[in-house]
Amino acid sequence: MKILFTGGSSFTGYWFLRELAAAGHEVTALFRKPASGYDDSPRRQRVAMASELVRPVHGCSFGDDAFLALVAQGGWDLLCHHAADVTNYKSPDFDAIGAVRNNTLNLPQVLRALADAGCPRILLTGSVFEGGEGAGSQGLPDFSPYGLSKALTAQAFRFYCDRAGLRLGKFVIPNPFGPYEEPRFTGYLMKNWLAGKEASCSQPSYVRDNIHVSLLAKAYADFAGKLPATPGFSRLNPSGYAEGQGAFTLRTAQEMRPRLNLPCAVTLAKQVEFPEPRVRINTDIVDAGALGWDEARAWDEMADYYLKAHAEASAPAR
Fold first, then answer.
1. 180-208+242-314 belongs to CATH 2.40.50
2. Tag placement on the chain: N or C end, fewer CB within 10 Å?
3. How many CB atoms lie within 10 A of CB 59?
4. pLDDT per residue over 244-254, tens digit each?
């Protein structure tokens, strides 16, 4: 397929591009800047690597004039809208309405242009932290203003895709982890273990759904490749390790000890506060074997990535 992809500089975006290209699709990926224009090292690295796999287009964002001109060139089989406004997404003051406005800029016009150009499919990335997604506790509320922005974005896409007679696929992401991510929980664990320190899990009782990004990306490419061209709606909620955060921390330590040849010590705190829903997980079991994914190899790749990063950070300056 000939695919137009937004959000390629993100952690998951890079991995999705990698698997779409590996599946033989012709992908054009939009980036706000060339690799050298990004401040943080992981994003620079992802954009540079992705640009070797796909056709990069810089200075173009969903819904703007340059994007509409690109759509009008025609020949597209699928639009993958993976980009989303994530500015200060963890903040309780995150501008959910402003984010929806950015995520859906000129949406009716974009969809009409795609339909006129003969593109029958849209694939939107969702989040398990949207209200009503996945399975869990407390009535599946939106986790945050960011989760609300993703839910409202999805509702707008579903409404306007239906009106335009397009197929909408929704791919719902849980908690991905692996190489090339920004420093998050697994990055914190690896950094401490490689420094010979004990790591802790402060929220071991939350039940979440952590998934290897390499498996998530293979599921994404498979879902994209199988989206029908007929009008309608499809959804996939791929699940990984659906378990307590404490159990996931212990799992990661167990997998890393022989790979790092380190004790990978862990302390699990006693969690007494629960400001977020206690349980939120995805619901679709992924057939890893059918996708050609190997779990041991994924853990190996994660260990190798962090070992290399640690060695580079520890090397004396020249």
1. no
2. C
3. 12
4. 999 999 999 99
